[in-house]
Amino acid sequence: MFSACMRDCYDTCSIMSEIKNGKLIVRGNPDHPITQGFLCPKGALLPRWFHSNERLKSPLVREGKRGDEDFKEVSWGEALTLIKEKLQETIKEYGSESILVYKYAGDRGIVNYYFPMRLFHYLNASTIDSGICDRAGQEALKDIYGTAVGMDPEKIKEHKLLVYWGINAFWTNLHGFMLAKKGNVEIWTVDVVRTETAKRSDKFFQIRPDTDVLFALGVAKVIIEEELYDKDFVTKNVYGFEEFKNYVTRLSLNYVSQETGIKPERIKEFAREFTEKRGIIHIGYGFQRSLAGGEAVRAVAILPVLVGHKFGFIYDMKTIDKSYAEGKFLRTKPENKIPQMELTKVIESDDIKFLYIYNSNPLASYPNQNRLRRALKKSDVFVVTHDIFLTDTALFSDVVLPANTFFERLDIVDSYYHRYVLLNEPVAKGPGKSNSEVTRLIAKSLGIRVPYLYESDEDVIRKVLEANGISFEELKRRGFIKVPEGPRNWKTPSGKIEFYSQRAVSRGLGPFPEYKKFKGKYPLRLLTPTHRMTITSQYHTTHGIIDPNLYMNPEDAKVRGIKDGDKVGVFNENGRVITKVKITEDVPKGVVILYKAFWPKLLGWNANFLTTDEKVEKYGKGSAFHSTWVEVNPYG
């Protein structure tokens, strides 16, 4: 059977699945050009996830305090009646906008992700304006290109050089990394940390936090001043080049070196070889989750243009229109969109009275956890969570509904990395219900008779595919279909690539990317990347691997009297955690690392008990997780 990994991951693998002797067996689809017949270490453990005895089997209703594991099992009928009554009461007393549906990409199946929104659009509920992941970079790329959709990654092999900028691809985009390796493409990495990708790269440029923008501008300065850029391409296709040229000419290369930690000769080396090899850049999501992130992506995005690429970056991919699945046409009032990074704020303000959560575990993945948990404990908001496991979010809920896995339902999925749509067929039956099943049940309990809320998964899939000119029958036969790339242009005010960004100026930003120094109340910059064996809070219960260690540079440890393996306290204005330290030169001086979003219910805390909930205001109110500062002291 054809399955598809629905995780929030670049690779979106095509999987061949079967049940043998009652056990799920999975392998990478050998015919899929990106999956290439193998699965990452996380994907190989999917059967353990599917067969987990920790899966929820019955609906639960909270009896104790929020956060306590004190629930009683109830029937689906009882749970649905309680949800119905609370929805009706909320609408009657507070209005439909006091209902908020909070979702994210824990499951990216098009039906599973979008179909529940039909009900909440019909109810005229408030929705989340996503900003927790890649929003600042999205806005920055739109400033330059009018779109955040980059090049087809299958074309990597046609190029000589791929730069991984702020992405640990060996952990988070393994299939893309192998595409480059198999194509004998030279790989460089630009990062603050000497990651596994950096160690496997042909060149590594280790910059200081927040200096991505300055390093990129320094490289652009060399390319322009040494006249290495593609003059014909730039003349025809770039808006504001002469102004940008004057802007970077005033920049001192020595200053760039002092701030970034990269010697002038290495900046020149990057510029000259990047131009000679007409490099392309995979722009990571991590570094744009900071107060400097939007400006940094704008600067980095300019470099491929200078060597003649129309879209010489990888960041996002939007291949098909999925709007039919979501059903915004069911609304009768304007949509009230709440910035995702203001979830805690709206709970504190008492504006939300009913919160429905699916495909997400915000009580592990959301920043400044202590604040969020305090808000939920004080609030009378009624919380419903639909999940496979009793997550931290479930523990803070009033009703918990058991979900199923993508091995148990029909769906399709696209990718934000490659151009394939994948089929996902049901392989087995387990406990729980899909998001679309639950949506139909809630709609029925409310007495709603709108046919769109009862459409079958297959009918939704067929109509989405039909709207995009894709044959469902062919998809069933092959398991995946590549969506062809049509003619592309730059959707900017000038119709060109804008070095002088009119869109940025309209938002109160400078016309060119600007370098700003940020300093916190504490001396150490905390970075919270994902662990190799997790995707944010996903997979935590699957493999039993938890890495709660704080990674610290030897010099920072020495001045604090800390030795490898010591127990330490890590703290700031948001909270304090106790853990052990691992000393490594992979982490630069002034920086510490905690891997993000392990489940607090198992660990007692996670990195998000420390992370900031500040927003990058002028870049779509994107998250700023990595603009967190802490201090570390010996403990005990």
UniProtKB/TrEMBL annotation:
GO-annotated molecular function: iron-sulfur cluster binding; metal ion binding; molybdopterin cofactor binding; oxidoreductase activity
Pfam families in alphabetical order: Molybdop_Fe4S4, Molybdopterin, Molydop_binding
Lineage: Archaea, Methanobacteriati, Methanobacteriota, Thermococci, Thermococcales
Family as reported in the entry's similarity comment: Belongs to the prokaryotic molybdopterin-containing oxidoreductase family.
Protein name stated in the entry: Molybdopterin-dependent oxidoreductase
InterPro entries: Asp_de-COase-like_dom_sf, MoPterin_dinucl-bd_dom, Mopterin_OxRdtase, Mopterin_OxRdtase_4Fe-4S_dom, Mopterin_OxRdtase_prok_CS, Prok_Mopterin_Oxidored
The keyword Iron appears for this protein: yes
Keyword ATP-binding: no
Cofactor: Mo-bis(molybdopterin guanine dinucleotide)
Keyword entries, A-Z: Iron, Iron-sulfur, Metal-binding, Molybdenum, Oxidoreductase
Domain 4Fe-4S Mo/W bis-MGD-type: 1-54
Spans through the membrane: none
